[in-house]
Design a protein that fits this description.
- About 80% of the residues lie in helices and about 0% in strands.
- With about 170 residues, the chain is mostly helical.
- The chain has 2 domains: about 100 residues, Serine Threonine Protein Phosphatase 5, Tetratricopeptide repeat, CATH 1.25.40; about 60 residues, Serine Threonine Protein Phosphatase 5, Tetratricopeptide repeat (Alpha Horseshoe).
- Helix 9 packs antiparallel against helix 10.
- The radius of gyration is 18 Å and the shape is elongated.
Length: about 170
């Protein structure tokens, strides 16, 4: 039986649509149908991983991101996804390892800088957090969560003018 590649794309994109609509059950159904047609396709494992991560199924997300790295050890998305999973689990050493691996592959990865910034903020290393969050915003000015977290740090430090500027960026 010949696989119709259009079905793969339809299943994959339906999974993306349902994921964006926060319908995890339907998203997973379509991503898994796509995966059956193309089991070694990184983008499908990536989408499954981030779907599981968004719905706090961290162990399942880790499985998907590890599968990406089994296919391609230099995948930014595999390391990035693991970094965010470990951030959720507060596994500091693993967080640093994964996000730094992403930055070795691509120093301009705004999400890796964001992840490091969040990690440092959670661990009250505010100077490092500010540096990483600013670096993420230097690469991509539209990361609301970076502005939000910078605002929170500035507010905690009683740097009200800077906090206001960051919070205004999220409006």
């Amino acid at each position: 039986m010949k696989i119709n590649p259009e079905h793969l794309e339809a299943y994959y994109h339906l999974g993306l649509c349902y994921h964006q609509q926060k319908d995890m059950s339907s998203a997973l159904t379509y991503f898994n149908k796509a995966l059956k047609l193309s089991p070694n396709e990184e983008r499908i494992h990536e989408s499954l991983g981030f779907c599981y991560l968004d719905f706090k199924k961290i162990h399942r997300a880790i499985e998907e991101f590890r599968q990406i790295l089994a296919i391609n050890p230099n995948s930014q998305y595999g390391h990035l996804g693991l970094g965010f999973c470990y951030l959720e689990q507060r596994q500091a050493e693993r967080v640093l390892d994964e996000f730094n691996q992403v930055l070795k592959l691509n120093v301009q990865n705004d999400q890796a800088h964001l992840g490091l910034g969040l990690h440092y903020k959670f661990n009250k290393q505010f100077d490092k957090a500010i540096d990483e969050l600013k670096q993420a915003l230097k690469i991509n000015t539209k990361i609301e969560v970076a502005h939000q977290n910078l605002g929170e740090i500035y507010l905690e430090r009683k740097m009200y003018n800077l906090a206001q500027l960051e919070f205004e960026q999220t409006l």
